Amino acid sequence: MSTTTTNPVFIGMDLGTFKTSVASSTGYRDVMQTAVGWPKDHLARTMLGRDLVFGKDLVDHRLALDVVRPFEKGALKYVDGKKAGMSDAQIKKHADATRLVVEYAVKMVNREAGRPSFGVIGVPARANMLNKKFILDAVDGVFESVAIVSEPFTIAYGMNRLTDTLVIDIGAGTIDICPLYGTYPDEKEQVTLPMGGDLVDEEFEKRLKAKYPNVQVSRNMIREIKERFGFVHDLNESATVQLPVDGKPMTFDITEPLKGACQTIVQPIVAAVREMIGKFDPEFQESLRHNIVLGGGGSQLKGLDRVIENSLKEYGGAKVTRVTDASFAGAVGALKLAMNMPKDGWTQLKKRK
Ligand SMILES: Nc1ncnc2c1ncn2[C@@H]1O[C@H](COP(=O)(O)OP(=O)(O)OP(=O)(O)O)[C@@H](O)[C@H]1O
Ligand SMILES: [Mg+2]
């Protein structure tokens, strides 16, 4: 290694569809939306006093901003930009947004001028070569070296659950499922479902508007209601909220549309878990079923752990737990991986071309 790389700051990054969390070997951690806002016009720029907006300010000033979420609905991280119907100009804008988010996040946790950043970045378990190249290109110049790994694997690594464990990472864009049995998991054994919290939000909005056509609700409000009340079990749950109609707040019972929307991801998860477990040898199936870990923001959905357990009853029963810190489990695991990474595990970005 050259002298500039002898004293790196190691960074673990969970570059999510909805949010990016970062943790560094110098002890900082941060979480922000995976989004960049550009002021819409000259007036907005003057009011905001800057050309780029990140983090919480994106919500506060959203009306004055052109906000780009580069990985919305898993685009570019999992689905190719072209297949997601994006033009070359849009792909370029999303690539710029990705680099800006990564740059900003790294600045928040590597505050030591002159020390290069070595980053481990989580991507969907079944992200393809094009998706990985998109990330590598976008972070070139921000990191000196990177390693790209599967998102659920970072969670397992951080928890030291490298064997007899099945991790389900329920994100905004994708749900990633990864079995751990003591070696690096083979890509082919992992599953990425092209759905997650964004899809639940879309579904909830559709069902809510079908039931109450006059309610006024933004996607942000939809997400916040889901995060507060979302549930997937059948018993004793009800949710009422106040929403405006023609500007006047009224009370609505949203139990059914919310439950229906949250449940859309349950069957696909259950089907994928059953299929995955069925492929392992019988003795190992038992231990996998009894060590299922839910991570990602979607792991917080009320009742999801029990519903998955119940769905595996006739297969011999299961034990499902949640990560203790859904926001940082991936980033902290990625940081631990970075600090233990052998030299040949890194891709040195400058040398790539
Ligand atoms: N309490 C909650 N109940 C239900 N969903 C929640 C809750 N908290 C967060 N979420 C949802 O979790 C999703 C974000 O999860 P996470 O931050 O793990 O995703 P991500 O890493 O950005 O996405 P991905 O891993 O797909 O790229 C959002 O859809 C968010 O609304
Ligand atoms: Mg994620």
TrEMBL record:
PANTHER family: CELL SHAPE-DETERMINING PROTEIN MREB. It comes from Limnoglobus roseus. CDD domains: ASKHA_NBD_MamK. It comes from the Bacteria. GO terms for cellular component: cytoplasm. Keywords: ATP-binding, Cytoplasm, Nucleotide-binding. Its main location: cytoplasm. The keyword Phosphoprotein does not apply. It is found in: Cytoplasm. One of its GO terms (molecular function) is ATP binding. This is Rod shape-determining protein MreB.
